[in-house]
Amino acid sequence: MEKTKVQAYFSLSNDDDFPLDELTKRMKIQPSRTTKVGEPLLLNSARHYFSTTWQYGLGYKETLDVDEVLMPVIYKLESKVNDILLLKKDYNLVAKFYIVIQIHNGLSPGLAINTRASKLATEIEAVFDINLYAYPYSELE
C-alpha cells in the first residue's frame, strides 16, 4: 500500500538559456536535477521544457512532516544568500521553493512554513510553490 510522500526542492530558472555549469560552480552545490529550455520532456517526446532550471533537493520521503524534507534544503542554502542574489541578477533568474505532497489513503501532512525557511525565502526573494496530489483510497486486502 502506498504511503504519503513529500519532497521539497529549490530552483533557479528562467525562460531563456543560462550556463548551468557556471551556476553549479558558483553555488558549490551539486544540483539534483537540471533542465534546458527546448529539451524534450521525455525521451522521444514532442513536448519540450519551456525553461532552463537548476534544482537542489533530496527527493521524496515517506513522512507526514514537511519540515523533514524542507529544512535540509534550507540549511544547505542559508550560507548562499549572496551567491543566489548575484546569480539572480546576472542571469535574470526566478527563485522558488517547491513542496510536493503525494497524499495516499487520506493521510495528509501538516503544512506550516518554518520561520527560518520564510526568512531565507524573503532574503532571496523566493516564493513557495506547493503542489498537492491526493490519490484515491486503496482498498484493504
List the helices and strands and how they pair.
Layout: E1 5-14, H1 20-27, E2 33-35, E3 52-57, E4 61-62, H2 67-77, H3 81-91, E5 94-103, H4 115-123, E6 127-134
Parallel strand pairs: 5-6
Antiparallel strand pairs: 1-3, 1-4, 1-5, 2-3
Description:
This protein has 141 residues and is α+β, with helices and mostly antiparallel strands. The protein contains 4 helices and 6 strands, in the order βαβββααβαβ. Strands 1, 2, 3, 4, 5 and 6 form a 6-stranded mixed sheet that branches. Strand 5 (94-103), helix 4 and strand 6 (127-134) form a beta-alpha-beta unit. It is globular. The mean pLDDT is 92.
Strand content: 25-35%
Tell me the total number of β-strands.
6
* C-alpha-based Rg, rounded: 16 Å
Distance between the termini: 10 Å
Summarize the structure.
The protein is α+β, with helices and mostly antiparallel strands and about 140 residues long. It has helices spanning about 20-25, 65-75, 80-90, 115-125, and strands spanning about 5-15, 35, 50-55, 60, 95-105, 125-135.
Features of the shown structure:
globular; single chain; 6 strands; 28% helix; 6-stranded mixed sheet; alpha+beta; 141 residues
